[in-house]
Design a protein that fits this description.
Glutathione transferase family protein; Glutathione_S-Trfase; 323 residues; single chain; four-stranded mixed sheet; Glutaredoxin; Glutathione S-transferase Yfyf (Class Pi), Chain A, domain 2; 3 domains; alpha+beta; transferase; GST_C; two-stranded antiparallel sheet
Length: 323
């Protein structure tokens, strides 16, 4: 009898665990469905809004027989537009309403992302690579006079920390490179398939941030010459080899499938790829040290060979902008 009760208890325990797992799985499915329906509703709303604007524009074309650009120019002349100051004095309200409608319509076609940074590969490179790989239509604004334009960006609320990069999309202005990279990753499918994937991606990304921090300390912070030499030697002979081994083991743990987490490219992969590229270009001998880990080299080659990333590298975008 006692054994029977114990067996029943164990069975009931398994059933409760199974029921809890089923409930969690159901909750995840419902949440996924809710998000999908929300996206579909938002897309439907935008389509309806665009239809209304197109209908209004068609009516305007009947009144103003000219193309969109000429129409906008004509309506702009009806008001005085100077910087951010608009005057409607002596302008018929009907005509001003036409101007505002066409301005809104034209702006519909400029709802693409903008990434603003210096004309170099640096803290904006991870989100930029993600945007490139995802095939996102975005603008890159290369700043060459940050000290001069910084007050303008701050006054507009676009640089709350007084730093670059800055990322913009409809309804969002975002600063801080890591926040930008994570946002772009979430939006375009570079953050894993599950919450556990996301946590592991964050873990790997934080490790990459440690590499960047150590690199900055050794190469860029003001140090006496002898201390600089010591910092570089420690970086090359101790810190970097340890990091190469760590990431080699993470790749091995994930099945050496070319990714740190899961089975597709993530923000952690791109962060490591960008950072090691920077390390190899600035720390002599570091590439040879990394060559001891074939799976790490295969990982780097795999990211570089992705079609859109390969095309991006071939464009040599920073050199082109300097010409």
């Amino acid at each position: 009898m006692t054994q029977s009760k114990a067996g029943d208890g164990a069975s009931n325990g398994r059933k409760r665990k199974s029921s809890a797992a089923d409930s969690e799985e159901l909750r995840k499915k419902e949440e996924k469905k809710r998000r999908r329906l929300a996206r579909e509703a938002e897309e439907a709303r935008k389509k309806e809004e665009l239809k209304r604007k197109q209908a209004r524009l068609a009516a305007l074309r009947a009144r103003y027989p000219m193309d969109d650009r000429e129409l906008l120019a004509e309506l702009l002349e009806l008001g005085e537009l100077t910087g951010q100051t608009v005057s409607t004095e002596f302008v018929p309200m009907e005509a001003w309403a036409d101007f505002m409608m066409v301005w809104s319509f034209v702006d519909t076609f400029h709802d693409q992302a903008t990434l603003t940074y210096f004309n170099s590969a640096g803290r904006a490179e991870v989100p930029r690579i993600l945007l490139e790989d995802a095939g996102v239509d975005y603008d890159f604004v290369a700043i060459t006079n940050w000290a001069e334009v910084k007050p303008e960006y701050q006054a507009a609320g676009k640089a709350p920390f007084g730093q670059l990069p800055i990322y913009e999309e409809p309804g969002l202005v975002l600063a801080q490179s890591s926040a930008i990279a994570r946002h772009v990753a979430r939006e375009h499918g570079y953050y894993g398939e599950t919450a556990h994937d996301a946590a592991l991606i964050d873990q790997a990304s934080e490790g990459v941030a440690d590499i960047v921090s150590r690199l900055i300390q050794a190469l860029f912070l003001p140090l006496p010459d002898d201390k600089r030499a010591e910092a570089k030697a420690s970086l090359l002979n101790e810190f970097l080899p340890a990091q190469f081994e760590i990431y080699s083991k993470l790749l091995e743990k994930n099945g050496n499938n070319g990714h740190l987490v899961g089975s597709k490219l993530s923000v952690a992969d791109v962060s490591l790829w960008v950072t090691l590229g920077m390390v190899f270009s600035r720390v002599e001998g570091s590439k040879d040290a990394a060559a001891k880990y074939p799976n790490l080299q295969a990982f780097l080659d795999g990211v570089a060979s992705r079609q859109r990333i390969k095309a991006y590298l071939a464009r040599d975008v920073y050199a082109a902008k300097k010409e």
